[in-house]
Amino acid sequence: MDVVHSTLDEACSPCSDGSDVVLASRLTRAARLIFELYLDVLPVHHRDALASFPQQSALALTNCMFLSHQCVTLGMQYKARLPPPLNEQFFTFADLVFKVGQNSLALISILIMLNH
User: Fold this and answer.
1) Under 8 Å between Cβ of 98 and 104
2) Which end of the chain is more exposed for a tag (fewer CB within 10 A), N or C?
3) Per-residue pLDDT averaged across 35-46, rounded?
4) H or E segment at 108?
5) Residue 31 near residue 8 (C-beta atoms within 8 A)
């Protein structure tokens, strides 16, 4: 989350050459891609640990729940600080909640399958 917050902080800081809107839109997109990258890499990189240790699956599930909460609240934290006209538009990460939820369901199904 530190990388996401620092990326969004940079998107909110003014540029000296006037390219605020272009840079801010690219950085907000990069923040979204950080979430998607984490969700895509987690089951692949930690496949063995998730299959072997139920605690690892539970920890990954907790991480996904935390990310889901962050997706809901990040837009409210940064919208007012973005440069115009981005701060006048709808800014949210809430659409990623569904993808995080799908990942959580996959992780919990691994956990359930291990216990049966």
Assistant:
1) no
2) C
3) 89
4) helix 96-115
5) yes
